[in-house]
Amino acid sequence: MPPGLDALKHIVVLMMENRSFDHMLGSLKATNPSIDGVDGTFSNPDTMGNPVYEQPLAEFQSQLDPDPDHHFPAVDLQIFGGDQSATRAANMQGFVKSYYQQQEDLAHSQKIMYYFTEDKLPVLTSLATNFAVFNRWFASIPGPTICNRAFAHYGTSFGQVGMNVFYPQGKSIYERLQDAGHTAKLYYFDQASSTMEVVNLLQHQPELFGTYDQFLADCKSGKLSDYSFIEPNYTDHDNDDGAQIACDQHPDHNVQAGELFIAAVYNAIRGNAALWASTALLVVYDEHGGIFDHVPPPSCSGDGHSAGPADTGLNYTFNFDRLGVRVPAVLISPWIPKGLIVPTGRVFEHASIPNTVTRHFTGSNNIGTVREQNSETFLDLLSLDTMRTDAVVFST
Questions:
Q1: Is the dihedral of CA 396, 16, 328, 220 positive or negative?
Q2: Which of 31, 176, 231, 344 has CA 20 to 30 A from 219's CA?
Q3: pLDDT per residue over 120-176, tens digit each?
Q4: The CATH number of the domain where 149 resides is what?
Q5: Is residue 188, in this structure, part of any structural domain at all?
Q6: Which residues pair with 340 in a beta bridge?
């Protein structure tokens, strides 16, 4: 076993909200052509048929308001450009049309094509360029938050494509690890902004939940679980520590607040030398939030479930055999070569998370769906023979 994998005792996943790869990391192509980002040639037609090109004009807040539609029918329009024929192919030509439908404002609809320049996102882009960035990490389904996050917890959404509450029929990654004698915890921000799945995830198992403050304390004391999943603050609210600003980066929340949160999670791990040497941190986004990306989602193995027209809102049944839109994903560890670009030939999705975690801590995976078991795993990226002594430094 490579030294980095031999030393790996902790896997941490921080899942942010609703941003596409081109929108957040696309500008990195200018400094590294191996990154499949923006190049000035990608466009979408507006409702008048005029091309709208990607532009480096994204703002931290007050731009993507209203929140771009990312429910199943809207994402279908975004991916296929409105083509409903049996022979259709993904062309990523419907994002401007989709956003126009919400306000019927031609100028405003073009903002769905805006992206951030590297200097605007110093935390995310520094982590991407200093560790590993994935060229092909996709949302698990072309739909909204809850069903996509379910894939990170269960490797499936049990046939769900929307935001309805549902009750799982299989074991979560946390329960799998617990059954195998390992520890796992889902850290939500606080009682006012707890996990979106608290009503159906890990029923009657409060020992598998913790707050963000507990995560910080566990990092400091060296008591972090084998597997940890961290949720950001989803709402602006007050708690005992005062005003808390939403840091999930969900439009139209402040993107800079999310940058600070990512840095704080990274700093908490890096601040404990023993923990830093034995941890892999994955920063990933649950879905694209209706924002443009130029890479057509590929097909994938089915998961044994389907969603009919009443659920999809369209005139066909979805068999969970193709992925959603590409999202940012960065893997961080001192055992990863600096500036590693995961090539386009390797396709990842959120089912890769429980598959990777299950295989690393239990040695195999005969629990997840066939789709989960067939998904790519990512710990082979910890490939160095000697741990790096350099590290990104953020002040928060």
A1: positive
A2: 176
A3: 999 999 999 999 999 999 999 999 999 999 999 999 999 999 888 776 778 899 999
A4: 3.40.720.10
A5: yes
A6: 132
